TrEMBL record:
It comes from the Bacteria. CDD domains: cupin_HutD_N. Pfam families: HutD. InterPro entries: RmlC-like_jellyroll (IPR014710), RmlC_Cupin_sf (IPR011051), Uncharacterised_HutD/Ves (IPR010282). This is HutD family protein. Residues 1-21 are annotated as: Disordered. It comes from Albidovulum marisflavi.
Amino acid sequence: MRIFSPDDFDTQPWKNGGGVTHEIAREDQGGALLWRLSIAEVKTDGPFSFFPGLARVLTVIEGAGLYLETPEGRIEALPLTPVAFSGDTAVTSRMIDGPVRDFNVIYDPAWLSVHVDRPPAGRSDYPLAQGQFHACLALAAGVSVEGVTLPVGGVAHFETGHVDCPAGFAALMVRFSPR
């Protein structure tokens, strides 16, 4: 298991000046991105970056949400509700009611499938499965993985174990599965 504290994140401003991205962790394969976890601070409306050939799951973790305008129609990115879309899709974001922070999982769908959800209060077990691994983002105090308490905003990356969460919306879980 690896723990990533918010102090360890690699923070970079966006090219368009509309916010910053805090890269939590990533894995490359053959010189190409396999997966990346990040938190974005969205401060203005504007276009999203393209990630050709990749897929993404975005979950608003602070703020009222975003309207994501795409050629296929509007996606409503509401608090704590994961939305999935292609990194090839042209997306223009509009804040619903002020700035937001969102958690992003960007991955290569040729190699992985990804599922993001909120674990229930109490203990949840994540058993060992061939090639599968997990990430837990602590949104509140008291979240632990295998008995290790995560800092608020911190992430645990692990293959198998149990996650303990207090009541409420305390964490987000990501399950990566091989294709």
